[in-house]
Amino acid sequence: MGLAIIHSRASVGVQAPSVSVEVHISNGMPGFTLVGLPETTVKESKDRVRSAIINSNFQFPAKRITVLRKINRNKIEL
């Protein structure tokens, strides 16, 4: 159905590396998948994203949603 790419910045200490977020919404079994995050972070992030959408008075779509988060780690030392 659609692909959206959002460019932003992350907060890592005093640095702000670039982050890309790709969201793909398609037909199929409704679901919400986050990719590109550590396993323990995924569950918390899914709940936060879902809550943010609903609390912003948007309707959470009954579609298959895949979110890919990519952080550019080339410019920072962790």
Automatic annotation (TrEMBL):
<dbReference type="InterPro" id="IPR020568">
    <property type="entry name" value="Ribosomal_Su5_D2-typ_SF"/>
</dbReference>
<dbReference type="Pfam" id="PF13541">
    <property type="entry name" value="ChlI"/>
</dbReference>
<protein>
    <submittedName>
        <fullName>Uncharacterized protein</fullName>
    </submittedName>
</protein>
